[in-house]
């Protein structure tokens, strides 16, 4: 897609964004790294709402920001496609299926043990194939030569050996610095100029609101000590301060809801198991936690407050940073830095393919066989991801019966 084509690309409707995100929300199993694979296949390859480079640049930006990276990428794509309302539509569509499912779990499932169900194991295995497909495609696009391939490999090694909260951020920063100084000769003369459908004033206002809420909410909970306000403060703080997204949020959530006695440890563990059984972002675990705090008539309200609070920082940060990100990414030196960053993102994805995706899923040769089958269905037979998810769930059930 050329620069001119990108600049003249027709904006989509809010419903179009919602419906596309909703279908992804119904089928996107496997956690945040797998979600990026689903997004790439749908938004870049099939729908062509944005090109490969813009997508990876957006992923790199969201890796910098605290919060759930895959949800932020979806919010950003919705913003590019249909403005601020499009970002809201993309978020609602992607999160709604898992939010509804987890509220139902809070009512009906309770302490039922689903951790060892065969179909659930199949959903974990399909994530291996999806992430492998994403890594393969992004490696060819963003680490095609010796220098960038080496950046990707080094990033993989460091991500695996030093699995700390800020490791990914440091890898991206160092890769950007390396690219700034050593990849300038590889920079193309042109890059896509993405039209951001919001003003800079709106972006600055969004960042101000983000910081103000982070500072003022703890004060307000002291002045007005109500349950819903305290709940909103706790979940907003988690959404604002967790880097890496995904499973990194679990210890923070546990300290916020178990220690005050809002949720028991058994309820927390049961909810985590339920979250593994549904598609969509892991941050929708907040819906279960909110609902299980009050399984009466107000459960849905409490659940929605928790969900909105934990995702609100992502909205404010994406809206606040994207206009400035779009401008600086046009600069030649920054383009070279982005080349290093994009190669590092490939390495981070490759590390995630091993841990936690592979290590938490592939336990024996039967698992490996199912991974090969699902990977072949994606890469060779070009089946849509939702069909592969169904095949893997059935295969997981068969494996569970065999062993």
TrEMBL record:
Signal peptide: none annotated. It is a multi-pass membrane protein. Keywords: Cell membrane, Membrane, Transmembrane, Transmembrane helix. It is found in: Cell membrane. The keyword Cell cycle does not apply. It comes from the Bacteria. InterPro entries: Chr_Tranpt_l_chain, Chromate_transpt. The keyword GTP-binding does not apply. The chain crosses the membrane at residues 20-39, 88-109, 121-139, 151-183, 203-223, 299-325, 337-353, 365-381. Belongs to the chromate ion transporter (CHR) (TC 2.A.51) family. NCBIfam families: 2A51 (TIGR00937). This is Chromate efflux transporter. It comes from Chengkuizengella axinellae. The lineage of its organism: Bacteria, Bacillati, Bacillota, Bacilli, Bacillales.
């Amino acid at each position: 897609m050329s620069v001119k084509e990108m600049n003249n690309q027709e904006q989509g409707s809010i419903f179009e964004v919602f419906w596309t995100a909703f279908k992804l929300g119904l089928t996107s199993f496997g956690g945040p790294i797998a979600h990026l694979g689903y997004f790439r296949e749908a938004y870049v390859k099939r729908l062509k709402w944005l090109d490969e480079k813009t997508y990876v640049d957006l992923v790199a930006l969201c890796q910098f920001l605290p919060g759930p990276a895959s949800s932020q990428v979806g919010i950003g794509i919705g913003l590019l496609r249909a403005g601020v309302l499009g970002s809201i539509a993309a978020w609602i569509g992607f999160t709604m299926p898992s939010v509804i499912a987890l509220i139902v779990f809070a009512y009906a499932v309770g302490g039922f043990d689903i951790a060892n169900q065969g179909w659930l194991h199949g959903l974990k295995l399909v994530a291996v194939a999806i992430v492998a497909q994403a890594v393969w495609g992004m490696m060819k696009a963003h680490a095609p030569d010796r220098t960038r391939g080496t950046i990707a490999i080094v990033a993989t090694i460091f991500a695996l050996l030093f699995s700390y909260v800020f490791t990914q951020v440091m890898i991206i920063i160092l890769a950007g610095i390396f690219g700034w100084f050593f990849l300038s000769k590889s920079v193309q003369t042109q890059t896509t100029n993405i039209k951001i459908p919001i003003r800079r004033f709106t972006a600055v206002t969004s960042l101000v609101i983000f910081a103000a809420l982070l500072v003022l909410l703890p004060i307000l909970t002291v002045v007005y000590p109500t349950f819903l306000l305290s709940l909103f403060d706790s979940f907003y703080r988690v959404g604002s301060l967790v880097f890496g997204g995904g499973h990194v949020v679990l210890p923070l959530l546990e300290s916020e809801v178990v220690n005050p006695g809002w949720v028991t440890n058994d309820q927390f563990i049961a909810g985590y198991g339920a979250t593994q059984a549904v598609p969509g972002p892991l941050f929708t675990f907040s819906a279960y936690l909110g609902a299980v705090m009050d399984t009466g008539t107000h459960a849905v309200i409490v659940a929605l407050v928790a969900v909105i609070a934990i995702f609100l920082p992502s909205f404010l940060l994406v809206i606040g940073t994207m206009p400035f990100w779009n401008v600086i990414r046009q600069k030649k030196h920054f383009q070279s830095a982005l080349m290093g960053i994009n190669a590092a993102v490939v390495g981070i994805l490759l590390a995630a393919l091993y841990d936690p995706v592979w290590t938490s899923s592939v336990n024996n040769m039967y698992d490996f066989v199912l991974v090969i089958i699902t990977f072949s269905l994606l890469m060779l037979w070009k089946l849509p991801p939702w069909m592969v998810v169904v095949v893997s769930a059935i295969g997981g059930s068969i494996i569970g019966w065999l062993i």
